Amino acid sequence: MEARCQCGAVQFTTPLPKPLALYICHCAECRRQSGSAFGTSAIFPRFELPKSELLSCYTRATHSGHTLYCYFCQRCGTRLIHTTPGKNVVSIKGGCLAGLDWATAIHIWTKSAMIPIPEGSETHSEEPTGSDYSSAQETLDQPGPLVNSGGFPVATQTPEVGKLGRVRGACELSGVI
């Protein structure tokens, strides 16, 4: 699948023609990140980061205490990719991809939903448990850094992340525990 930011400065192709899973998350953190009533994430195997001087990274603590790496375009600010160390899957923000089949999306953190959930959709009141996002999780969920243009940013404690501590009521889309 082809992905790009809003201004087109950062573009890349996913390693598979369709995601392993597609989530619509209604948690407070995804709502803030998207500036909308929910966030969308397409799960793919880890792949080489796009080569772009404009790809930057923001980090934040997750509700489980992990660090979430959030890659975005410096020019237009579009959030593109989320990842968590130790996972061989990444989350690509759904709005960056054309051609997703939204009918298959799994709604998570529905207890925080601000809009009605479509009838017949798979739903979870919080985070899915175990291997819910893919039968291939066991083979993908092995440690390994992102490769090429950046991998995991140098491990430095940003003051903002340190002040946040654990985030409550938020999803772990790029690193399901």
Can you tell me about this structure?
The chain is mostly beta strands. Helices cover 10% and strands 25% of the residues. The protein contains three helices and nine strands; from the N terminus they run βββαββββββαα. It has helices spanning 28-34, 137-140, 159-164; strands spanning 2-4, 11-13, 21-25, 39-45, 55-61, 67-73, 79-83, 89-93, 106-108. It has a seven-stranded mixed beta sheet. Strands 1-2 form a two-stranded antiparallel sheet. A hairpin with a 5-residue loop joins strand 5 (55-61) and strand 6. The longest helix is centred in the first third of the chain and has 7 residues, at 28-34. The radius of gyration is 15 Å and the shape is globular. The two termini are 26 Å apart. Residues 131-171 have low confidence and may be disordered.
Topology:
Elements: E1 2-4, E2 11-13, E3 21-25, H1 28-34, E4 39-45, E5 55-61, E6 67-73, E7 79-83, E8 89-93, E9 106-108, H2 137-140, H3 159-164
Parallel strand pairs: 3-9
Antiparallel strand pairs: 1-2, 3-4, 4-8, 5-6, 6-7, 7-8
Give a nutshell description of this structure:
The protein is mainly β. The protein has helices at residues 28-34, 137-140, 159-164; strands at 2-4, 11-13, 21-25, 39-45, 55-61, 67-73, 79-83, 89-93, 106-108.
